[in-house]
Amino acid sequence: MKKQLVIVLVLLILTSSLFAAGKEEVQGGMEYPKKAITMIVPYGAGGTTDLTGRQLAIQLEKHLGESITVINQGGASGSIGARTVLNANPDGYTVFFTAESLGTQRVMGLSEMSYDDFIPIMVTVNDPKVIVVNKNSKYNTLKDLVDDIMNRPGKVKMSYTGPGGSGHVQALIYNKLGLDMALTAYPGGADCILAVLGDQVEFTNSNFSTVTGYLESGDLKLLGISANDRIASYPEVPTLAEILPGSEKYLGNPFTPLSLLVDKDVPSEVIEILGAAARKATKESGWIEYVANNSLEKLYEKYTTENEMRQFFSDWESLVSWMLYDSGAAKISPEKFGIKKLSY
Amino acid sequence: MMELLDIASYFLDVRFVLLVFAGSVAGLFVGSIPGLSVSMATALLVSVTYSWTTTDALATIMGVYVVGVFSGAISAILINIPGAPSSVVTTLDGFPLAKKGEAYKALTYAIVYSFIGTVFGFIVLWLLAKPISHIALKFTPMDYFLLALFGLTTVGSLTTKHFAKGLISASLGLLFSMIGIDSVMGTARMTFGISNLQAGINIVPALVGLFGFSEILTVISGGKLEGEVSKVTKSAVKLTLVLKQFGNSMYYSALGTVVGALPGAGGPVAAFLAYSEAKRIVKNPSVPFGEGAVEGIVASESANNACIGGALIPLLTLAIPGDAVTAIILSVFYVHGLRPGPMFIKASPEMFHAILAGGFIGSLFLLVLGFWAAPRISKIIAIPKRILLPLVATLCVIGAFSCNNRMFDVGLMFFFGILGFFMRKRGYSVAPMTLAIVLGGMMDSNFRRAISLASSEDSFFSALLGRPITMLLCILVILTLLSNSKNVKRVLHYLMKRRI
Amino acid sequence: MKKIALINSTRVEGFVFLILSLVLFIYSMILHRLSNTEWKMSPYLFPLVISIFLAFLSLSLLKEGKQLKKEIDREEGVGSNWKDVIYIAIFTLVYCILIGVITFIPATSLFLLVSFWYLGERKRYLILLISLLFPVILYVLFGMLLHVMLP
């Protein structure tokens, strides 16, 4: 019996050394970070926010000297994950990597949170929005799809990531242009694609990086780009602006700005360290390659200081919030939160 | 052929095998303690292994995954507390067997058939990943909803003699799962202003409370604690006898793999479905089901372990994780710069082979560690109850706490423990409630998605129920409900008589 | 399993569940109105469906209880040990509260000590050994290895 006990103990110690192996401290004189950092991604695994967040986490680890655990907390247009971050201790060990939905939560009545509750570390990239259909779809060009939506208002189905998300904003823009689709909410970008692959919906408006694998394998057809510029890797695919005149003024904005944020109560030293690490991270070859492969728009080169980032968020918030409100999608007036109306 | 050689080469790679072994030991430990879940261990591993090479990380994780899913059965059999939701079904027959002093026999069956299930799942993953992923794509939201509903209705009929009570237990479980922020609209629902409830009811405290704590109370209420020690008969179990179930286990494994490949359904549903099938096809079990039939253990264990291979299919081919563990494995890929998706198996065959090899080696270690540990661990029930029960209570508390690091979950555990105790006393099985809490959120969102998809069609009902899979599932659900209703039974009985 | 005959109690349960389903039905209806959404998107659609389902089930339970009335009334052997159950439940509850106050290891030791003694273990050295060693082992395993932030 004793012998067995010894064996069990040895095994336990072996396992424990396994867990402990990665914990060696690599750090200079700074206080932060002293332990592993948690990055909350408020969407399901495999979507563009998740992929980019993880890529950034890998590069950040190199400069922070501590591991970053990425946790997916999907659902409710990103508000569940955002709530977790704000509930956590504001010590900088919980960081938030999110897409744009934070800017629309208040007017959508989803939560009381907004960009104001956070401090931006970096506005990283914008993932271009594209329109994809199943490989067996009857639509072969963007024009086919647009015409069919025009002819059968409210009948052509589109999957999107939930009220207030970027897919929803896109749908609202299409509405403004006279297109009326039947929307169904899915938990994340990858699930929206699955709905297209499984013929549950006719098309989806996805982020480009989410669909690259399926375009290569031929399971999806890329019909159009929901922006003003074509994508370098698919130069033959037209933009929506070319098919639908009048859409340029809406589609010029970055609709999926992915950003790294922390709770607004996090000490400023920590923010500086994180910011410096993030800037270094974007110089890493792995990151540069990732951005190039996915045709991402480098917003981090455009908005560098905290004030610029805040300005960007407030402009973006104003544009989208008013668009949602004017279309009737948002129930609460942006005015209530002091969001000024800019001309759009 | 080249593929086979490639996979076999991993068996000779000492480093690879050792890492799988290390993972397996961790899996054995983590899986068998109620409240410590495999997903927790893998999540921890991810942060540890980020600096390792991808193959090393995968080797360790596959070890944890394969052995961890099996070892949930150990505590299920020995102390009636399943280590994870997918082992819930194993308690139905495993624990009664252990109470008779035949814990070793129960464990032997669990080990052998977990091994067979795992190997089956991985072979399917290896050879049929593409076609199965196409089947998974055919499932619409309505099908997911119906599949889960089917699981719940079979549970209702399986676990209690009163069908209605089983279903009531399931409905209450569904009700509990509604609590928290709604995943579609993002509004708080049924939280009654308690902010801790916003995150919803985590399955771990519910499971630990419903099975663990309520079991303690039940044993105590039964009295006879003074010096009561369960006997352990350590008679060797004949392997030829064990292997008699092989044919059936293939069927359960196939079922498990397919259910595992459907994202969101996973282990618990597979185990329940396999168990209900076992009840249907095995006409003469060794003892009646629910009283220690090894056939029940075979069904549950082959199905839940076959789920592993199944769950990896949508992960690798569609980048959609089938359960919590595969969601974390997905992040391992991303951390190491790999992109699962339709091109993955073709583009990085070496990773695919490493996963397969890790799975096969892991299942061998399952066999080795299982047989090494089983006779030793089964002595647990020889510990006097008056010592064992308080220790288990402590484990319940710490297990509930550790899933989210908050005391609120310990309170929840306590609540579910008391609830479970009264349910057991009144003949309401706790198993359907557990399954319902696991599945509720997914059922709700898929149901609404299905309604939303269909409501834009011209004919609402044909869009909702028109697809072949949907119709099949619908019929299955209705049949299960009807065949268990007393009135229908009476009518059928009457008709039968008339004909004669 | 012994046959559990539950005359009145089955009917009582049926009533309780019927009332629960009614409350749930009304609750879902009211909150649906307040949430201001279409039914197909409403968070209260599914609770509503559950309430209807539960209502049917409770009716069937009521009916069962009615039929059982003619059978022999027999209570299950529950009552035998209510005292112990209540005591252990209270111990555990106090333990849960104490963890937050006097941290994990002392609270666990105390809980184990008291419960061992209450359940009838009388070997003092054994009680002391387990109740002191076990919490420490747990603390090392969970707190250090698994990074659980035990109080």
Produce the secondary structure layout:
The complex is a heterotrimer of chains A (344), B (500) and C (151).
Chain A: H1 2-20, E1 37-41, H2 48-64, E2 68-72, H3 79-87, E3 94-98, H4 105-108, E4 118-126, E5 129-134, H5 142-151, E6 157-160, H6 166-176, E7 182-185, H7 189-197, E8 203-207, H8 208-217, E9 220-225, H9 240-243, H10 248-251, E10 257-263, H11 268-281, H12 285-293, E11 297-298, H13 306-326
Helix pairs in contact in A: 2-11
Chain B: H1 2-12, H2 14-32, H3 38-49, H4 54-79, H5 88-99, H6 103-138, H7 141-159, H8 163-178, E1 180-181, E2 188-189, H9 203-221, H10 239-242, H11 246-261, H12 266-281, H13 294-318, H14 324-335, H15 344-347, H16 349-377, H17 385-402, H18 407-425, H19 431-454, H20 460-465, H21 468-484, H22 486-499
Antiparallel strand pairs in B: 1-2
Chain C: H1 7-35, H2 45-68, H3 82-102, H4 104-118, H5 124-145
Helix pairs in contact in C: 1-2, 3-4, 4-5
Keywords for this entry:
heterotrimer, A: 344 residues, alpha/beta, D-Maltodextrin-Binding Protein, domain 2, 2 domains, six-stranded mixed sheet, five-stranded mixed sheet, C: 151 residues, mainly alpha, 5 helices
Structural account:
- The complex is a heterotrimer of chains A (344), B (500) and C (151).
- Chain A contains 13 helices and eleven strands.
- In chain A, strands 2-1-3-10-4-11 form a six-stranded mixed β-sheet, with helices on both faces.
- In chain A, strand 6, helix 6 and strand 7 form a beta-alpha-beta unit.
- In chain A, helix 2 crosses helix 11.
- By secondary structure, chain B is mainly α.
- Chain B has one domain.
- Chain B is 75% helix and 1% strand.
- Chain B has 22 helices and two strands.
- Chain B has a two-stranded antiparallel sheet.
- The N and C termini of chain B lie far apart (60 Å).
- Chain C has two domains: 62 residues; 63 residues, no CATH class.
- Chains in contact: A-B, A-C, B-C.
- At the B-C interface, helix 3, helix 8, helix 9, helix 17 and helix 18 of B face helix 1, helix 2, helix 3, helix 4 and helix 5 of C.
